[in-house]
C-alpha cells in the first residue's frame, strides 16, 4: 500500500526487454534506499513494482506483460522521469489517500493551461472509470494523490500547485501525455458491495451498479 505522496523523482537508467516482458533500472539520488530490501515494493509512476536488485543509487524491477498492457511503463525510455514512493508502514503519515499501486487504466492529458502559479490540466479517463471519479474526490495520477477539481463525463480537471510541480513529474505533462490512473479504493469496494448476492453471478454485458439496482437496495426514493 502507498499514500500517493511522492517521495522522490527518479529516472530510467536502463531498459531491457526479456522474453516479452521488461526489466527496468531506476536511478534516484533522492529516494532513501537504506531500509529497502530485495522483494520490497516501490511505486514507480503509480505502479507497484518489486525490487529484484539494488544498485546503490537505485533499484531494478521486472515489469510483466499484463502491467505493460495496462499501464504507461511500456512508454518509458532511458532518461524518462518517474514518480517514486516506497510502501507505507504503520508509522507513515497518510497525507494523501490509500493507494494500492494497481493501475485501473491509462488517461490522456487533453489540455494544459497556466492559472496564476498553478497549472490546470484536463484529463480524459477511460469511460469504464468515469463512475469512480467524483468532484473533489481523490484520484492517483502516476502515483500522485490529487484532488479532482471538476468532472464532465469521463473528463476531469486537476489544479497542480507549485509544490506539487516541483516534487513530481506533473510539470512535464503536455497535451497527449499518457498517465497511469488509479481510482479511489473505497469507490471500487462500494460498487462491489452494492451488488450484494449478484456479485457471485457470472458477469453480464450490462452488469454493474445501475439506477435500478440502487433503487432496489433502497438508495433511491
TrEMBL record:
Subunit text: Homotrimer.
EC number: 2.5.1.9
Pathway: Cofactor biosynthesis; riboflavin biosynthesis; riboflavin from 2-hydroxy-3-oxobutyl phosphate and 5-amino-6-(D-ribitylamino)uracil: step 2/2
GO process annotations (BP): riboflavin biosynthetic process
UniProt catalytic activity: 2 6,7-dimethyl-8-(1-D-ribityl)lumazine + H(+) = 5-amino-6-(D-ribitylamino)uracil + riboflavin
Function: Catalyzes the dismutation of two molecules of 6,7-dimethyl-8-ribityllumazine, resulting in the formation of riboflavin and 5-amino-6-(D-ribitylamino)uracil.
Keywords: Repeat, Riboflavin biosynthesis, Transferase
Protein name stated in the entry: Riboflavin synthase
CDD domains attached to this UniProt entry: Riboflavin_synthase_like
The protein's enzyme class: transferase
Source superkingdom: Bacteria
Repeat region (Lumazine-binding), residues: 1-97, 98-194
A molecular function (GO) term: riboflavin synthase activity
SUPFAM superfamilies recorded: Riboflavin synthase domain-like
Domain called Lumazine-binding: residue spans: 1-97, 98-194
InterPro entries associated with the record: ATP_synth_asu-like_sf, Lumazine-bd, Lumazine-bd_dom, Riboflavin_synthase-like_b-brl
Amino acid at each position: 500500500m502507498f499514500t500517493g505522496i511522492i517521495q522522490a523523482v527518479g529516472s530510467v537508467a536502463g531498459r531491457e526487454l526479456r522474453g516479452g516482458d521488461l526489466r527496468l533500472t531506476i536511478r534516484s539520488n533522492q529516494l532513501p534506499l537504506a531500509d529497502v530490501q530485495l522483494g520490497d515494493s516501490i511505486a514507480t509512476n503509480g505502479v507497484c513494482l518489486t525490487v529484484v536488485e539494488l544498485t546503490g543509487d537505485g533499484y531494478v524491477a521486472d515489469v510483466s506483460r499484463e502491467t505493460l498492457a495496462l499501464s504507461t511503463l511500456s512508454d518509458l525510455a532511458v532518461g524518462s522521469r518517474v514518480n517514486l514512493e516506497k510502501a507505507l508502514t504503520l508509522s507513515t503519515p497518510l497525507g494523501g489517500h490509500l493507494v494500492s499501486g494497481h493501475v485501473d487504466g491509462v488517461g490522456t492529458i487533453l489540455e494544459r493551461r497556466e492559472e496564476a502559479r498553478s497549472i490546470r490540466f484536463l484529463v480524459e479517463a477511460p469511460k469504464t472509470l468515469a463512475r469512480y471519479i467524483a468532484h473533489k474526490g481523490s484520484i492517483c495520477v502516476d502515483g500522485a494523490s490529487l484532488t479532482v477539481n471538476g468532472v464532465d463525463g469521463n473528463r476531469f480537471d486537476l489544479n497542480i500547485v507549485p509544490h506539487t510541480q516541483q516534487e513530481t513529474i506533473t510539470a512535464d505533462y503536455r497535451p497527449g501525455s499518457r498517465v497511469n490512473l488509479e481510482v479511489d479504493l473505497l469507490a471500487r469496494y462500494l460498487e462491489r458491495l452494492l451488488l450484494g448476492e449478484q456479485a457471485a453471478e457470472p458477469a453480464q454485458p450490462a452488469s454493474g451498479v445501475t439506477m435500478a439496482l440502487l433503487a432496489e437496495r433502497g438508495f433511491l426514493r
